[in-house]
Amino acid sequence: MPEHRIFAMPFAKVYPLYVQKAERKGRTKEEVDQVICWLTGYDKAGLQQQVDAGVDFRTFFAEAPAMHPNTALIQGLVCGVRVEEVEDPLMQKIRWMDKLVDELAKGKTMEKILRA
Which of 100, 12, 89 shows the shortest CA–CA distance to 54? Predict the structure, then answer.
């Protein structure tokens, strides 16, 4: 089966779309960064370095310091697909990030988004 093309897509191409989506709903870039850093273990400088370097999604997640231990608590639909049922590990990580940004844009509290 051919690899999904999003794996080779630069993270820096999608990141501004995450920020725009959140800002349209009254959230901030800092909140988007907080959610992504929570998921991946990057700090703000590390996240910005990945954006500036133009790494693809595969590299972005491969170089992530540590996926958060509560990722199993991320559940729900993204584009009609249940994130907890995605079989490809890389695609699941991408869907988790999509889901967290969706929750942010929908106005959920940061406490709920970060599974605190």
Answer: 12
Q: Which residues pair with 81 in a beta bridge?
A: 78
Please state, in angstroms and rounded to a whole number, the distance separating the CA atoms of residues 108 and 49.
Answer: 28
Ranges in the chain, pLDDT < 70: 1-2
Q: What angle do CA 9, 69, 20 make, to 5 degrees?
A: 40
Domain spanning 5-113: CATH superfamily? uncharacterized protein sp1917 domain (1.10.8.290)
Nearest Cα to 22, choosing from 112, 98, 96, 111? 98
- At which residue do the structure tokens 């406490």 appear? 111
Instruction: Give CA–CA dist 15/72, Å, rounded.
Output: 23
Question: Residue 108 is encoded by which pair of tokens?
Answer: 């959920």
Domain positions in the chain: 5-113
Identity at 13, one-letter amino acid code: K
Query: What tokens does 68 get?
Result: 């958060």
Q: Given this model, what pLDDT does residue 116 score?
A: 82
What's residue 1's pLDDT? 55
